[in-house]
Amino acid sequence: MCLICLNCGENIISKEMGQLSKGYSKGNGWILFLMIMSGIVIGGFLGELLGQYVPILKYGYNLGVNTHTWDLNILQLTLGFKFNINMFSVLGILIAIFFYKKNW
Question: Is residue 6 part of a domain?
Fold first, then answer.
């Protein structure tokens, strides 16, 4: 059943659904981020696991920032991160983006 405005003849339901989908799309960036991170982790794990049998899969690139420590006498804060991206991690990223485009 379709709800149409009597004054202008415009389809009200499809217009409201379009506005709902536009408002919901703001949260999809987090879904994409989580899917890419999952692809990196799962791909990295598979790359390390299968790298024992096919050594070229184990090669990767280290990306990150060295740790830095602040000592404030009552609190010691250490920040830093590193990614070891191998061939399967890149494949995991591509698969995650593919599934994101397909489903969202």
Answer: no
CA distance 50 to 58: 8
Model confidence pTM above 0.90: no
* Structural domain for 56, as ranges: 12-103
Backbone angles phi, psi at 76, to 5 degrees: -115, 120
Judge whether 7 lies within some domain: no
The answer as to whether 27 is a domain residue is: yes
For residue range 21-54, list pLDDT tens digits in order. Answer: 444 455 578 899 999 999 999 998 998 899 889 8
Question: 42-80: string of b/e by CB count within 10 Å (b at 16+)?
Answer: bbbebbbeebeeeeebbebeeeeeeeeeeeeeeeeeeee
Element (H, E) at 17: helix 12-24
Q: What is the number of domains present in the chain?
A: 1
